[in-house]
Design brief:
By secondary structure, this protein is an alpha/beta fold. Helices cover 35% and strands 22% of the residues. The protein has helices spanning 44-51, 74-83, 91-94, 101-112, 117-130, 147-159, 177-194, 205-211, 229-234, 239-246, 282-286, 304-309; strands at residues 7-16, 19-29, 33-37, 59-64, 67-68, 84-87, 165-169, 197-202, 214-219, 222-228, 292-294, 297-299. It starts with 6 loop residues before the first strand and ends in a 6-residue tail after the last helix.
Length: 315
């Protein structure tokens, strides 16, 4: 059974001034893991900011459950802010350098809950324990903690208001590999224990493969492929998804290989990916591909069926 949508976008276009940076994107995030994948500049963080209510779309709608974000009244906005919490790339971005961990978490608690001082202190200790931290760290400021500890405090702060969904923007990219693994274990455990949904914005396919059942791949502000994460990573149907997968190194395997012209900017006409695509043909220069159903996923590629076989020749 499909989980109910907590957060969604329907035909959303976003712009900075006169320049559109996200084009006609539709996605749905339910009570489970959803990945938003793409290289830097693909528009995924801009879309996430809009989903958090920080940007207004030029066209289309952003939805919290069945309601349009733009139409929420004061009570509805307060409910939305409790239900959907962000976790940023670096824990220090979410933490005031002048405040202790306890003060940062307490600030979130007092914004959304009425509690006595003793209740707040007990709740802070519980939250720190939930994210694998010793409550003694409650008295430390961000500069007195490691990167992994700061990220755990940021997660504890987000959990303080008992959200339904976390929006995670590259939550492990600023951490070393060992700490990344611990944070992923934590997020996986929270999802299992609390039924907590998450939208994970990342370029790391390994993280997506572990935490997300469904994924959306963005290039040049457009969703170019979406569907079950396992299918996208094992048999991509879009050349860009394939290039991302092939760029991932494997222990003891061959070095990652470049696919097409990796330095080329998105094309301004036709398929945006065509200047980097080894499958591009004349039609790709003339016609922008629309999303269509191909073997259980949506793909914006004229030659998706051939990409799935992995051996489509240039024409």
């Amino acid at each position: 059974m499909t989980a109910p949508t907590v957060l969604g976008a329907e035909g959303v276009t976003l712009a900075y001034g006169a320049t559109a940076v996200v084009h006609d994107v539709t996605l749905a995030v339910g009570e489970g893991g959803v990945g938003l994948i793409g290289e830097s500049g693909s528009g995924k963080t801009t879309l996430a900011r809009a989903l958090l209510g920080l940007l207004r779309p030029r066209s289309g709608s952003l939805r919290y459950g069945s309601r349009d974000l733009a139409s929420l009244d004061r009570r509805g906005r307060a409910e939305f802010r409790r239900a959907v919490q962000p976790v940023f790339q670096d824990g220090s971005e979410a933490l005031d350098p002048r405040m202790t961990a306890e003060a940062s978490i307490t600030e979130a608690l007092t914004t959304h809950h009425r509690m006595t001082r003793d209740e707040r202190r007990a709740r802070v200790g519980t939250l720190l324990g939930d994210v694998g931290l010793d409550p003694v760290l409650a008295g430390r400021r961000p500069h007195q903690m490691s990167g992994g500890q700061r990220q755990r405090v940021a997660i504890a702060r987000a959990l303080a208001v008992e959200p339904r969904l976390l929006v995670l923007d590259e939550p492990t990219s600023a951490l070393d590999v060992t700490v990344q693994a611990r944070i992923l274990d934590l997020l996986e455990g929270l999802a299992a224990d609390r039924g907590l949904g998450h939208l994970l914005i990342t370029h790391n396919l390994g993280v997506v493969g572990r935490l997300c059942r469904t994924s959306y791949v963005m290039f040049a502000g457009r969703v170019v492929e979406s569907g079950p994460t396992a299918a996208l990573l094992t048999r991509p149907a879009h050349p860009y998804t394939r290039a991302l997968r092939d760029a991932v190194p494997t222990l003891g395997g061959e070095p990652p290989r470049a696919t097409g012209r990796t330095e080329a900017a998105p094309a301004s006409t036709g398929c945006p990916f065509r200047l980097r695509c080894p499958f591009a043909v004349e039609r790709c220069a003339q016609e922008t591909p629309a999303l269509r159903d191909v073997e259980g996923r949506s793909v914006a590629c004229h030659r998706a069926e051939e990409v799935l076989t992995g051996d489509a020749p240039r024409q």
